[in-house]
Design brief:
- This protein is an all-alpha fold.
- It has one domain: Ferritin, core subunit, four-helix bundle (Ferritin), CATH 1.20.1260.
- About 75% of the residues lie in helices and about 0% in strands.
- The protein is built from six helices and no strands.
- Helix 4 packs across helix 6.
- The structure holds hydroxy diiron-OXO moiety.
- The site of hydroxy diiron-OXO moiety (OFO) has 9 residues, from helix 1, helix 2, helix 3 and helix 4.
């Protein structure tokens, strides 16, 4: 018979704890990377993109904290991640948003892997907890894809970059519309 994952002291296995701690590192890296991008955008005068990325950095920190609390209340130990190797300068605004899109795709893959693992070990509580992240990733990918699309739609010549920066401010409303919410 399969070993029960729930014991009197913990409701997640050590393996699940390890995977969730890896995800904590990813969310911490997201928060740090977006903060760095926001700061670069601010120095270049891309004020709307900077505001968007500062806010997203805060949201990523909240995603990390949510995981830390979950691991701790499940009998594990959520670990403050070591964050190094954050990029501070970028070739262009396009590079910033392409990096965001690629990063979010990696985060989605990582969440999906943990979801797969939870189903395999019949950890339905963590599976359920992770559904919030599944929905969130879908929204964040939509935002990032649209941001990259703006560069192709508007073009970067003349006032193009200024216009793209303005449109970045409308991304959240766009993602909401595309989610089918009334
Ligand atoms: Fe944490 O939502 Fe994206 O990375």
């Amino acid at each position: 018979m399969k070993k029960q994952i729930i014991t009197p002291t913990r409701s997640i296995t050590e393996e699940t704890e390890k995977l969730l701690n890896k995800q904590i590192v990813m969310e911490g890296k997201s928060a740090a990377a977006y903060l760095s991008m926001a700061s670069w955008c601010e120095t270049k005068g891309y004020d709307t993109s900077a505001a968007f990325l500062f806010k997203h950095s805060d949201e990523e920190r909240m995603h990390m904290l949510k995981l830390i609390h979950y691991v701790n209340t499940a009998g594990g130990h959520g670990l403050q991640p070591e964050i190094t190797g954050i990029k501070h300068t970028f070739k262009s605004l396009r590079e910033v948003f392409e990096t965001v899109l690629n990063h979010e795709i990696e985060v989605t893959k990582s969440i999906n892997n943990i979801v797969d693992h939870c189903l395999a070990v019949k950890d339905y509580a963590t599976f359920n907890f992770l559904q919030w992240y599944v929905v969130e990733q879908r929204e964040e990918e939509t935002l990032a894809r649209r941001a990259v699309e703006l560069f192709n739609l508007i073009g970067e010549e003349g006032v193009g970059l200024w216009l793209i920066d303005q449109e970045i401010g409308k991304l959240e409303a766009y993602a909401e519309r595309m989610s089918g919410k009334p």
